[in-house]
Amino acid sequence: MHPMLTIGVRAARAAGQIIMRGFSELDRVQVDTKGLNDFVSNIDKEAEAAIVQQIRKSYPDHSIVGEEGGESKGSNSDYLWIVDPLDGTNNFVNGVPHFAVSIALQVKGKTEVAIVYDPVREELFSAVRGQGAKLNDFRIRANNPADLSQSLVATGFPFKARQHTETYMKLFAETFASCIDIRRAGSAALDLSYVAAGRVDAFFEIGLKPWDIAAGDLIVREAGGTVTELSGGHNYLISGNIIAGGPKATIQLVKKFRPHLSESLKK
Question: Is the pTM of this model over 0.85?
Answer without folding.
Answer: yes
